[in-house]
Amino acid sequence: MANKILERISYITDLMRGKGLSVSLLVYRSDEAHSIGYYRLLGLIDDCKVYIMEFISDKGLVKYSYTLLLRDIVMVRYDNAPHHPNITTHPHHKHIMGRIEPLEDSSIEKFLEEIENLVSENCSK
Q1: Most buried by CB count within 10 Å: which residue of 21, 46, 65, 80?
Q2: Is the dihedral of CA 58, 60, 63, 67 positive or negative?
Q3: pLDDT by residue (tens digit) across 73-92?
Q4: Which residues fall within 8 angstroms of residue 109, CB to CB, at 6 or more apart?
């Protein structure tokens, strides 16, 4: 599918802007068809930063990390780094204020839904 990554970036950018975030594309690398590659987005709102990183191959989403920082402190992060084999949803897991928990739904939509209240309570004017 041509432009798969560009379509994904556009979709996630729209979701983030819908949550009141100002969004910038930090890194973008892909093949000629824009179907295999890597990107990183930054969403800003006051003292909060939301980083979205995904690596997409011809088989779909391979690696991801979605992070909410409040004044450079990790509030919530979803990722699939394979370093917590004891988690029932391994390799998918989430970090919440230093705790590691299983992650049943690793979608970007779920992440943005989960952080919405944190952003409105801690980050918005």
Answers
A1: 21
A2: positive
A3: 999 999 999 999 999 999 99
A4: 15
